Amino acid sequence: MSILIVEDNPTNALIIKHLAKKATDTEIHVASDGASALAMCHAETFSMLLVDHFLPGMSGLQFVKAVRLMERYEHIPIVMITAETEPRLQEEAKAAGVTAFLHKPVEAVAFRQLLTDHLGNSALQKSA
């Protein structure tokens, strides 16, 4: 099992990776743009994708649409991480295949719950 974080801001990527490492022993990969993340998804199957909405080159929504075209990613959880609170974005993202949302700044308890919900307790190192 492994998780791919797609985040162009190095600080945000580091924070999300740190939260993930505290919650799970799952291998964590980071891509800074949609194109490199898409290439990684073609080379490997991740058990979860954590995707920023605003990315250079292609948006998070464009990335999600492209990933969902791959059969092996049909049922993989994709979480959009964004500071945007516009309800229309959530509607468009759900239609594109986003499974869940996390709002920035990412809160540790909500992040852990999201991992539990989508990867199961077996993916977590500890319950507290």
Automatic annotation (TrEMBL):
SMART domains: REC. The modification 4-aspartylphosphate is found at D52. GO terms for biological process: phosphorelay signal transduction system. Pfam families: Response_reg. Residues 2-119 form the Response regulatory domain. This is Response regulator. SUPFAM superfamilies: CheY-like (SSF52172). The keyword Cytoplasm does not apply. It comes from the Bacteria. It comes from Peteryoungia ipomoeae. Keywords: Phosphoprotein. The keyword Phosphoprotein applies.
